Amino acid sequence: MKSYLVLLAPGNDDREHRKTLILPDRFSWLALFFPWIWLLTKRLWLAAIVVFLLQLVAGQLSQTQDFEIAGLLLALSVNLLVALEGRHFYSEALIRQGWRLDAVIAAPNLDAAEEVYFSAQEMGDKSELPAVANWAKNKRATADWPQGGIGLFDHQGGR
Question: Residue 95 and residue 77: Cα distance in Å, rounded?
Fold first, then answer.
């Protein structure tokens, strides 16, 4: 089971949940191989710049004699850090921007998480159902029926 974070948009005007984000809290393969590009797609500009600079330093270290392993380990650790914690960093950035964490849902997939979350929400506009017409008491409605009943029991035309 994976966990999903439900983030509500800033303000309380989104009653239909059109802007609600349901983010999976999991490992990101794209962030493992292209961490600074993944961060740029999430609009985490400062983190993308820091990761890019760390990768440049790791590249320089891996080309220096006696520091090849240190450079590779630095690059691998930066990539793993972004792959493991990038989604958490993204959700925290959204919360700082005014988004509100509403729920954490454990579900096997995104569709199930959406179903669990939205089934627990109240409906938007609960309008009263129209009153049931009292047609059986209307003499005109029963006058057109013959004396016999339609079902198992004869009600003598509703009289």
Answer: 26
Contact (Cβ atoms closer than 8 angstroms) between residue 149 and residue 155: yes
**Class of residue 101 by CB neighbours under 10 A (exposed 0-12, middle 13-18, buried 19+):** middle
DSSP state of 67: -
3-state secondary structure of 17: coil
Task: Choose between 159 and 109: higher pLDDT.
Answer: 109
Who wins on pLDDT, 13 or 145?
13
Record the pTM: 0.67
- Whether 78 and 54 have beta carbons less than 8 Å apart is answered as yes
The Cα 50–Cα 129 span in angstroms is: 58
- Cα–Cα distance measured from residue 113 to residue 23, given in angstroms and rounded to the nearest whole number: 10
Q: Between the CA of residue 95 and those of 21, 114, 118, 135, what are the distances in Å?
A: 12, 20, 21, 56
pLDDT at 48: 96
Rounded CA gap, 82 and 110, in Å? 22
Q: CB–CB of 6/102 below 8 Å?
A: yes
| pLDDT band, residue 79 (cuts 50/70/90) | very high
Task: Report the alpha-carbon angle 27-33-34, nearest 5.
Answer: 105
